[in-house]
C-alpha cells in the first residue's frame, strides 16, 4: 500500500497547530510522516510544534523544517522535496481531517485514472458552522471548471483549493513542476490545471473541517463577494499577483 506524507505550511499558526498535530496522531492507518514547514513565524508556532513532537514522538513521525522564504507554494514545495512517501497530502494548519483520511487517500489514488483528490471542506467556527459558504465552496469545485475550462471539465478537471486537503502521487506532482512559486494565491487551482493532464481530479465524499477565521474577520457577505470576485478574475486569466491584494493575510 502506498505511504502518505503530509505537508503542513505554517506561518503564525500557534492558535491551530497543536490541535491539528494531535489529531494527526489519531490517524489509522498512520501517515508515513508529517512535515511542518515554517516560513518564519513570529508567534509560538515553532515552539508548539516542538512541544507536540516531543510528546507524540512514539505516535507521530513529525519533522520541522525551516524555509528561508515565505509563501504557501514555496513552503509546500520545500516540504515535498523532503517527503519520502509515494503520496503527498497538503494540509493547512487550521484544517482537521477524519481518523481514516489516510485510507481514504490511498483508496482514491488506487484508481490509476485519478491523478489528484481532495475532500469536501466544511467551514466551522467555535460556535457556528458556515453552511452557506461551505455549500458555495463545494459547488465551486464543479461550476468553476465547467464555466472557465469546459474542455478540461469533461476530461475530469475539478478545481480544488487548499482547505480541501489536496493529495496526489509524488511522481505526478514533480512531473507537473510542483506548485508555481511565483503565485501568492491560487497555487492550488493552478496545480489542478496541470495535474488533470495526468488523470482526473476527484472530490471524495468525505468531510474535513476548516477554521472560519477569515469569514469571521470579514463577515459572510464580504467573504463570499471576495471569493467570487477573485475566482472570476482568475478564471478569465488575471494575474494572481494582482489578485493577492484582495486576499490579505488575517493572522
Automatic annotation (TrEMBL):
One protein family per Pfam: Glycos_transf_2
Residue stretches making up the Glycosyltransferase 2-like domain: 5-161
Pathway: Carotenoid biosynthesis; staphyloxanthin biosynthesis; staphyloxanthin from farnesyl diphosphate: step 4/5
Molecular function as annotated in GO: glycosyltransferase activity
Cell location: Cell membrane
GO cellular component: plasma membrane
Record keywords, A-Z: Cell membrane, Glycosyltransferase, Membrane, Transferase
Alphabetized InterPro entries for the sequence: Glyco_trans_2-like, Nucleotide-diphossugar_trans, Trfase_2_rSAM/seldom_assoc
Family: Belongs to the glycosyltransferase 2 family. CrtQ subfamily.
Stated role: Catalyzes the glycosylation of 4,4'-diaponeurosporenoate, i.e. the esterification of glucose at the C1'' position with the carboxyl group of 4,4'-diaponeurosporenic acid, to form glycosyl-4,4'-diaponeurosporenoate. This is a step in the biosynthesis of staphyloxanthin, an orange pigment present in most staphylococci strains.
Name recorded for this polypeptide: 4,4'-diaponeurosporenoate glycosyltransferase
The organism of origin for this protein: Nostoc minutum NIES-26
Amino acid at each position: 500500500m502506498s505511504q502518505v506524507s503530509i505537508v503542513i505550511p505554517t506561518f503564525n499558526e500557534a492558535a491551530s497547530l497543536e490541535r491539528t498535530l494531535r489529531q494527526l496522531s489519531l490517524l489509522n492507518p498512520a501517515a508515513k510522516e508529517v512535515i511542518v514547514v515554517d516560513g518564519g513565524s513570529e508567534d509560538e508556532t515553532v515552539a508548539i510544534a516542538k512541544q507536540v513532537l516531543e510528546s507524540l514522538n512514539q505516535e507521530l513521525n513529525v519533522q520541522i523544517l525551516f524555509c528561508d522564504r515565505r509563501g504557501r507554494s514555496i513552503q509546500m514545495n520545500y516540504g515535498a522535496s523532503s517527503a519520502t512517501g509515494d503520496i503527498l497530502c497538503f494540509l493547512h494548519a487550521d484544517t482537521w481531517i477524519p481518523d481514516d483520511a489516510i485510507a481514504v487517500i490511498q483508496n482514491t489514488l488506487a484508481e490509476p485514472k485519478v491523478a489528484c483528490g481532495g475532500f469536501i471542506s466544511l467551514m466551522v467556527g467555535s460556535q457556528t458552522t458556515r453552511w452557506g459558504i461551505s455549500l458555495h465552496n463545494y459547488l465551486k469545485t464543479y461550476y468553476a471548471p465547467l464555466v472557465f475550462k469546459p474542455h478540461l471539465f469533461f476530461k475530469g478537471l475539478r478545481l480544488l483549493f487548499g482547505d480541501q486537503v489536496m493529495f496526489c502521487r509524488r511522481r505526478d506532482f514533480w512531473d507537473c513542476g510542483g506548485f508555481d512559486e511565483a503565485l501568492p494565491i491560487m497555487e492550488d487551482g493552478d496545480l489542478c490545471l496541470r495535474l488533470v493532464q495526468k488523470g482526473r481530479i476527484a472530490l471524495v465524499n468525505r468531510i474535513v473541517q476548516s477554521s472560519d477565521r477569515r469569514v469571521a474577520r470579514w463577515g459572510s457577505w464580504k467573504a463570499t463577494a471576495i471569493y467570487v470576485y477573485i475566482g472570476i478574475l482568475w478564471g478569465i486569466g488575471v494575474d494572481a499577483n494582482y489578485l493577492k491584494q484582495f486576499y490579505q493575510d488575517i493572522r
